[in-house]
Structure formats: C-alpha cells, structure tokens
Amino acid sequence: xxxxxxxxxxxxxxxxxxxxxxxxxxxxxxxxxxxxxxxxxxxxxxxxxxxxxxxxxxxxxxxxxxxxxxxxxxxxxxxxxxxxxxxxxxxxxxxxxxxxxxxxxxxxxxxxxxxxxxxxxxxxxxxxxxxxxxxxxxxxxxxxxxxxxxxxxxxxxxxxxxxxxxxxxxxxxxxxxxxxxxx
Length: 183
Description:
This protein has a single domain (4-173), classed as Alpha-Beta Plaits (2-Layer Sandwich). It is built from five helices and ten strands; from the N terminus they run E-H-E-H-E-H-E-E-H-E-E-H-E-E-E. The chain has helices at residues 18-27, 43-46, 65-69, 95-99, 131-134, and strands at residues 4-9, 37-41, 52-56, 75-77, 83-85, 106-108, 113-115, 141-145, 154-155, 170-173. The strands form four sheets. Strands 8-1-10-9 form a four-stranded mixed β-sheet. A two-stranded antiparallel ribbon has the order 2-3. A two-stranded antiparallel sheet has the order 4-5.
C-alpha cells in the first residue's frame, strides 16, 4: 500500500487560510465544519522570530485512532493510505473524536454525523492534489507518497501531539532560522 502524506513548508505558509477556504468550498461544508485549521506557531517552537503557521487536517495515520475507536466501522483506509469516513455508516457517537489525539473528526450538528478530511478522494480537478494544496497561493502544502517526500521535511513538529501515537503522516519543513543583526 502506498501511504500519502501532507507536507507543509512552514517557511512558505503565510497563514492566509486559503487552504481552509478551498476545502470548505470544494466540499460545500457548513460554517461550523472545518476539515483544515491553520495554527499560529509560537516563536520558541520553530526558533524563528518571524510569524509561522501550521496548516493541518487529518494526518491519515498508519494506525488511525478514529478508525480503531469507531464502533460502527465508518472508517476505512484505502490503497493510498487515506483514511476515509463513510457518513452513511456513522452513528454520530463521537467516539472517533475522543480517540483521535489530533482533534480531527468534527461533529456535524446538521447531519448528525462526524466529518473529516479525506484528501479530496475522487477529485477530478488536478488529480493527486487536494483542493487545499492546489489553491495554496504559496505552494506551502503538497501531498506526496511517504517514500518520495523531499529532503528537509520531518515527521511532525514540537507542540503538535506526538506523531508516534498513531503514526501520523504529517511532514513539516521548518523555516530557515533568521539571523539576528545588530544595527
């Protein structure tokens, strides 16, 4: 099985939320549901005095907590390693929300079921790249097979829950440290 992963370049991300908006528009999500969130990272985590942001969604884990915690069997992992949620099977019990250490599944009050990123499975526009990656104006988000991730990326980042808990497939490229100059 090939495992797909999100790769986020913190040196490029400007925190504009275009990825969040693209996801919401592509999936026609209600206001209360966000499959992707952009976090403002504290300076001490990335050792850079510049503002840094981390865009995250489902990590499509090797051993997904959401999948193991779902009593209805609403989660599956496809042949690309993408964790897919089936709302037709979901009973809305929220156990997946509690068993995901990354707070990814979100309860959709209107539909009465959970909702989460599926890396835009089935998207025919620009196959291989989800809407969040395609519409990022600075190309800070890309999807790669984990065996083809470019050099310079690390799995996870300090301050984010431990990626080893479930084998989270989020890879981050830290920004270059800005040298301090005295005037």
